[in-house]
Structure prediction request, 340 residues.
Amino acid sequence: MCSLPWTLDRLLLVTMSVWTLVGQIVVFFIMQHPKNNEGLSRIQFQTFPESRRLEMKEAARRMFYTGYDNYMKYAFPKDELDPLHCIGRGPDVEDPSNININDILGNYSLTLVDSLDMLAILGNSSEFRRAVQLVVDRVSFDVNSTVQVFEVNIRLLGALLSAHLLLTDPLKPFGDLEPNGYDDDLLYMAHDLAGRLLPAFENTTTGIPHPRVNLRYGIPADTANETCLAGAGTLLLEFGLLSRLLGDPVFEDSARRAAIALWKRRDKDTGLLGNVINIQTGQWSGKLSGLGAGMDSFYEYLLKAFILFGFEEDLQMFNQAYQGISQHMKKGCVVYGYYV
Prediction:
């Protein structure tokens, strides 16, 4: 019997309850502190007592295994678990336009690959080794699936690289994770996957990549020429790391050209970037600027890329973007003297 007896109304109720609780917590902390910098500092740097930290740590562990164990029981080797029906789910082959599903589900056991690093962090070395072997033996990216470059990069490519680094770390911070006979298999899989994403950078006059690519056949004939800021500008960490592990600059160069191409098209007066851009004309078709979905991780990756690779140009872009956002974007409302 399925151990995830969720119905749609229960899922909605849980979601609403979580957001209500979050709102109550924010208001509670705001009301507990005086309207001064000392109070604001205490809000920003609240910490759990040790007993609460351990309680939340155990809750997170249980939550992960609820999802992982049921995926392996009811869904593997499909991409993910359909929690309402307790069956596996892959791409929607009957409706290729269903991008909510097809942008990331591609018949490559997504949840298993995406769970590797969590298994290591939780200290489950035996299951990590078993999962790695399953990925090596059972997962292939030679599939007729049209997926979003952004989603595949952060969830699949990032997962493969993370797991490879964790299990080859000579310091073994999470124990002995290396399966018998491991020969950089996950790195080779990451190389294969990234090579299937590279066609997204072809036939674009700006260097900004196409948003989607077919992992077997390249760019679809009917592909869109518009992509969001985050979709095109959230590649540098994974592509850069892969280039350094392989000694092949093509991946990092492609991702960096895309990020710089986006940056050069910021508004000349405000320094802000839009949210949707035409990859051929370089014109913004979506001129909304913000830090929400479709935009946020572009800025995130500028700072993280500087931390990881040390290029001053990345830090300069981040600082200039931060300054423009701080100056030109509307702030939130004031409650008891604090912005929320």
About this structure: Residues 5-34, 334-340 have pLDDT under 50 and may be disordered. The radius of gyration is 22 Å.
